[in-house]
Design brief:
Elements: E1 2-3, E2 6-7, H1 24-78
Antiparallel strand pairs: 1-2
Length: about 100
């Protein structure tokens, strides 16, 4: 079985020399079996990929939460006036004081 140009499994059929040779029907059955096995293998790979993606998404959500908490912690003491709103700092917004509050 080839998956993304890489051999993942090989099906070998053998018979003793004294037995009858393989027929076209034997070849058709072997091909059908290989196709089903390849489908099962791909589904397994997909399940593993989905699990890894879900884990990464959860990790990113946690990181984003930590970032939000950090930004809130930095903004609170810096922008204590209720009439001032904190915005992300950019050089264009920094005044003489270097404050990021507007």
């Amino acid at each position: 079985m080839l998956v993304e140009e890489e051999a993942k499994a090989v099906l070998t059929l053998r018979r003793e020399a004294s037995e009858a040779p393989f027929t076209q029907e034997d070849a058709r059955r072997a091909e059908l079996f290989a196709r089903h096995a390849a489908s099962a293998f791909l589904l397994m790979e997909l399940a593993v990929s989905r699990r890894r993606l879900a884990e990464k998404a959860e990790e990113l959500q946690k990181t984003n939460h930590h970032k939000d908490a950090f930004v809130a912690g930095v903004a609170s003491p810096t922008c204590s006036s209720s009439s001032r709103r904190w915005t992300p700092p950019t050089p264009a917004r920094w005044g003489a004081s270097g404050s990021a509050c507007t």
